[in-house]
Amino acid sequence: KGASIWDYYFHTKNFVASNPGDFFKKPQKKKFPIYHKGTDLHALDAIRGYSFINGDIACDSYNKLDEDIDNLVELGVNTYRFSISWPRVLPNGDDRAINYAGVEYYKKLIQKLKDNKIKPVVTMYHWDLPVSLQELGGWANPIIIEYFKNYADFLFKTFGSQVELWSTINEPRFVALAYGNEGMAPSVGEMFNGISEYMVIRNLLLAHAAVYRLYKKKYAESQTGEISICLDTAAYFPKNRKLAADIKAVDKTYDFSLGIFTQPLVDGTFPKSILESIKKTDKYENISMKRIFEFTEEEKKDLISNIKYFQTTMIILTRLTIQFCYIIINH
């Protein structure tokens, strides 16, 4: 496959990682968080709690396809959600260069699932952007919308006759967060914290909408599938249900984690609490540069009604106070 931003993240000289053979025998616990500037130990190692591990070989589904499907059958699974790796099928990011070995793997996987009466639910993007596209700015550059549309078109042409349920982007919130810190690929750095995340969110939403419209216009009638986006959230509760500030903290946190993606797909606007919070922070920190751009009227038309159902992943349960809300949302 082609190189993804995660390959680059772990294998450049500043971010070296390896998988020693005895790792699982004696895992080395570390404190949280740890940042070793100028060394080869990357911050993500500390976040995960262990040193010297990467994702070169994870669950190894590429080589364990038959075994995985046998396990699914034994479990009685009737639906299986998996992601297609963008750089595995289009190593350079667009369909001018196709990796047919990668394409055949996914064709085989989908066919075997259907042979065993298991419905495939296919995610187009689960964070592994081709490095070549990150060199253009990745999700912070609006040109990514056209690249993602080209990629999706290739997937629909190649696999669409066998797939009924698609998810464009998995957990876009984390994609955006990665552009404002060093803890996830592409590790842009904190100098863009509170700026690039909003640019990325905007482009993610417009990319989803572009793919949705593409499918409805070109493929929906013949393939009869549905397009979704997979959002993540936690379950937030006020620490004190009688305290108005705690209730407001919960509402605000939901807006920043979930509403920032759902509301634009419903009415084409960002939640009012987010716009007000950014304005307040800008005034407090004397920031003169515009950090979030609302959608144009034409973009609103593209966004609205471009979702039929949502996929969600639930992560943790959290009780919030206004103080803890500020820690989570500092933009």
TrEMBL record:
UniProt cross-references to Gene3D superfamilies, sorted A to Z: Glycosidases (3.20.20.80)
Alphabetical list of SUPFAM superfamilies matching this protein: (Trans)glycosidases
Sequence intervals crossing the membrane: none
Biological process, per Gene Ontology: carbohydrate metabolic process
Annotated keywords: Glycosidase, Hydrolase
Record GO terms (molecular function): beta-glucosidase activity
Domain of life of the source: Eukaryota
InterPro entries: GH, Glyco_hydro_1
Family recorded in the similarity comment: Belongs to the glycosyl hydrolase 1 family.
Protein name: Lactase-phlorizin hydrolase-like
Biological classification of the source: Eukaryota, Metazoa, Ecdysozoa, Arthropoda, Hexapoda
